[in-house]
Amino acid sequence: MHSFFIFVPIQGIAILVIQFKLPFRGWGMKKIIVTIDGWSSTGKSTLAKQLAKALGYIYVDSGAMYRAITLYFLRNHVDWTDKKEVKKALKDINIEFQNIPAKETSEIYLNGENVEYVIRDLVVAEKVSEIAAIKEVRELAVAQQKKMGEKKGIVMDGRDIGTVVFPKAELKIFMTADSSVRVERRFKELFEKNPNITIEEIKSNLEMRDYIDSHREISPLKKAKDSMLLDNTTLTEKQQFQKAMEWIEKKRSA
Ligand code: DC
């Protein structure tokens, strides 16, 4: 919470202090679109959530949409190599983000069910890159993502947000980090849920996803030419947040 003071002199002597509590940084400033793309497990969502909260913007985890579609395909035994089956299945999928005030963020719902946690399972992670490479799946997700950014005031993270979804975004960030650091971070995160998981499983899943995401035919992961590179191998969360906020302030005051 940020505040400012107005000093109002009354009859030249008394000073009335009115304190306004501003709900977020830059209240009243022009709204922009911030895109965060990058390799798997570089902390895109962590940064995106922090920025959205500080700015009072909407946060959208686009990867969660591909994960939710993957979960639906797995649960319903959809053969995703069959275009007809994919098209039919996509018609039955409804994806929504709902704001969770207690957590000060949004969570994803698949046909009315909160799937924010189940989509993080390795079972989903193992298939999601394959499914995110399907043309029809991307068309559905990208159309929805573009709609969510119509009013600006949004931070969205993913792989093609700065290149395809919002090519005119005011600020584009591309995140990277050393692969060993990324594996370690992901391991810590998943080990809490599943103590049987191994470093080798995480490493091979990250390598596989990075390869498929950056080599697919449609919208492959690549750094937009006009994006800011953020390598957080040796940065703390606070340092990377401050760096990103500096970039944002520059864009908003430009
Ligand atoms: O960010 P994530 O790890 O939750 O993303 C899951 C997968 O979804 C990732 O392997 C690639 C895909 N993805 C994508 O193709 N395009 C996006 N905009 C976001 C994610």
Explain what this protein looks like in three dimensions.
By secondary structure, this protein is of the alpha/beta class. Helices cover 45% and strands 22% of the residues. The protein has helices at residues 44-55, 62-75, 83-91, 122-132, 135-148, 161-165, 179-193, 199-215, 237-253, and strands at 2-10, 14-22, 33-38, 58-61, 95-100, 105-110, 113-114, 154-158, 171-176, 228-231. It has a five-stranded parallel β-sheet with strand order 4-8-3-9-10. Strand 5 (95-100) and strand 6 (105-110) form a beta hairpin. It starts with a strand and ends with a helix. The structure holds 2'-deoxycytidine-5'-monophosphate.
List keywords for this structure.
single chain; 254 residues; Rossmann fold; five-stranded parallel beta sheet; three-stranded antiparallel beta sheet; 9 helices; binds 2'-deoxycytidine-5'-monophosphate
